[in-house]
Design goal:
This protein is mainly alpha-helical. The chain is built from twelve helices and no strands.
Length: 248
C-alpha cells in the first residue's frame, strides 16, 4: 500500500476513535447531569417532607437539622461507609416523621406531663416514621430499619422492639445519641441549656445501658466534640427566644 493511502487510513481510524470518545464523553456528561438533577430533586423532596413535619414549628425544624448534622459528624468519625452517610443524614432529618400522625397531635403539643396512656401511645411513632419513609427505601437502603429503631437502647430496654447491641442498626444508635445530646444542650421552659461537659458526662453515664459505649467514646474525641459543640451553640439565641415566648 502506498504511504499516502496508509496515512489516510490511520487518520480515518484516529478520527473514528476521537468521535467515539466524544460521543462517550457527551453521554457521560448527560448521564452525570441527569444524576445531579435526580439528586437535586431528591434533596428537594426531603426538604419538602421536613417542611411538612415542622410546618409552623421552627423548633422542630431546627432540632431535626441539628440531629442530622450531629449524626453526620459521628457517622464520619466512626468510618461509616460513604454510601451510607446520605441515608444517615436523611434518616436523622426525618426520624420523628411519624409524629405527624393525627393521633399524636395532642401529645406532641401537650404542655402538661404526659399520662401513662399517652406515653405508651407515642411509642408507636418510630413505626409510623418507618411507614412514611418506606418510599425512600430504594434510594436509601435501610432507612426504615434506622428510623424504626431510633428509640432502642443498647441494653434492650428501649422501644418499640427491645432490640439489643448490634441488633440495632448503626445509624439508629448514632441518631439516638445525637437526639439525646440535642435535648440536653438546648433550653427548655424549666431549665437552661446544659453545658457541653455536663451533657457529654450524661452520655457517658448512659454508655452501655442506653447508648452504644464505643460511639459514646467517639463523641469524646476532640474532633467530634468540637463539631458537636458548634452544632449545640448555633441556634441557642433562637431557642432561648422560643422558650420565652418570643415569636419568630
Ligand atoms: Fe423519636
Ligand atoms: Fe428527636
Amino acid at each position: 500500500m502506498p504511504n499516502s493511502e496508509a496515512g489516510q487510513g490511520t487518520r480515518t481510524a484516529v478520527i473514528a476513535m476521537a468521535s467515539a470518545g466524544l460521543v462517550g464523553l457527551a453521554w457521560m456528561v448527560e448521564a452525570s447531569a441527569r444524576q445531579n438533577r435526580t439528586r437535586m430533586m431528591h434533596r428537594r423532596m426531603v426538604e419538602l417532607a421536613l417542611n411538612a413535619l415542622s410546618a409552623g414549628d421552627p423548633v422542630t425544624a431546627r432540632h431535626s437539622r441539628r440531629v442530622a448534622d450531629l449524626s453526620y459528624a459521628l457517622g464520619q468519625a466512626c468510618r461509616m461507609a460513604r454510601r451510607d452517610l446520605p441515608t444517615l443524614r436523611v434518616a436523622a432529618l426525618l426520624h420523628d416523621m411519624g409524629k405527624i400522625d393525627d393521633r399524636f397531635f395532642h401529645i406532641v403539643h401537650s404542655r402538661k406531663r404526659l399520662s401513662k396512656k399517652e406515653r405508651s401511645e407515642i411509642k408507636s411513632h418510630p413505626h409510623e416514621s418507618a411507614h412514611i419513609l418506606a418510599p425512600l427505601e430504594p434510594e436509601h437502603p435501610g432507612i426504615r430499619a434506622i428510623v424504626s429503631s431510633h428509640h432502642e437502647c443498647w441494653n434492650g430496654s428501649g422501644y418499640p422492639c427491645g432490640l439489643k447491641g448490634d441488633e440495632i442498626p448503626l445509624g439508629a444508635r448514632i441518631i439516638a445519641l445525637a437526639d439525646a445530646f440535642d435535648a440536653m444542650t438546648q433550653p427548655r421552659k424549666y431549665r437552661d441549656a446544659m453545658p457541653l461537659d455536663e451533657a457529654l458526662e450524661e452520655l457517658r453515664n448512659g454508655a452501655g445501658s442506653q447508648f452504644d459505649p464505643g460511639l459514646v467514646e467517639l463523641v469524646h474525641t476532640p474532633a467530634v466534640r468540637e463539631r458537636w459543640d458548634d452544632v449545640a451553640q448555633r441556634d441557642l439565641f433562637a431557642e432561648r427566644n422560643a422558650v420565652s415566648g418570643v415569636t419568630e
